[in-house]
Amino acid sequence: MLRTLTRLQLLADVVAAALLLLVVVWSAVAVSPIAGPIVAVLLCGALAVRRLSPGLALVGVWAGALLQIATLVTPTPADAAVLGVAYASAAYGGRTVRWLGLASAVVGGMLAAAYLTLSSRHAYIRPLGPPEQTVVALAAVTVAMVTLLGLSWTLGLLARIVRQSREAKAQAAAAAQRAAYESAIEQERTRIARDMHDVVAHSLAVVIAQADGARYAAAASVDLRTEALATISATARSALADVRVLLTRLRREVPDGPQPSLDDLPVLIAGMRGAGLRINDTISGRPVPLLQGTGLAAYRILQEALTNALRHGDSRRPVGVELCWEPEALRLRVRNAMPERSGMTGPLEAKAPSGHGIPGMRERAALAGGTLRAGMLSEPEPAYEVVAVLHAVRPGEVVP
Question: What does pTM read for this prediction?
């Protein structure tokens, strides 16, 4: 099985093997004119493909080693290729090749020890002296050869473990980055959906209220009809511009445009009054610095609360809007009377919110570091109340 290598890696392996072959080929020819060069080519060829195909390199090394033993070719520097192939079998080979490399290191070390100890250029049996001396020498050389080949295989295994650890870390980092990116996209889509709901629900509520008013006032006053149509046109144009910005943000990433803030609350209240909503607004306390995004959250919460009051509240009674600046927070309260036919009574938070409006307000408040409560009140009269507490910057903090 062939592994994927870069052109530079393959070129480096081939050049290293070719240089080794040039160094040893002359000595191999001098030792054995026929078998010597063949053994050198097999060993150097195995060295050249050790990373491309560790299994093929292992076969080449065994072929060269067995031919060298069979023809009694004296060891040359080309035999060092055995160490490189043992390393590569553990570092780059598959499961089977890896364990065959370990077995080859053990068996090959024993065969090499026996060949080096007991053979010569002319005969396999070359006693070193008394039998005891021969056995001791054979044992020592065997331990040395098995240790040398085993050490090469072990170094390859360590290199493999280090490489796999780095790859695992890189994959984990990539997965974490991908998860963070997907989470950011999901959060952005949620924010865009929330903004879309706020813009469309508010604008359509104003348009519907003005259209109904213009229909009833058409016969009585042309001026009222003209004013209502002008309000409808202005609201629709503003909503269309906001929707276009949101849709553009969905299609591609663009810098955020100007966002409404607390400074735009008078314009919002004036627009709702123009839609026919009676509003009694009061502001108390001394303004304090707010956290980042709190101004937008306050605007959207008030926009949604007034839109709900226009759609579901009792239009004959005023809506109370209170902005209370406290030393560590901004308290926003919107309360509107409910028609008696609604049949909705109970304490604050007694009724589960429906749709996206109330959950969106609560989420905006939470993201701004505050809290929001919304629900029905039965005393002194049926009413719906929204209370948001948005925290300010603590003393010593820097406004982000």
Answer: 0.52
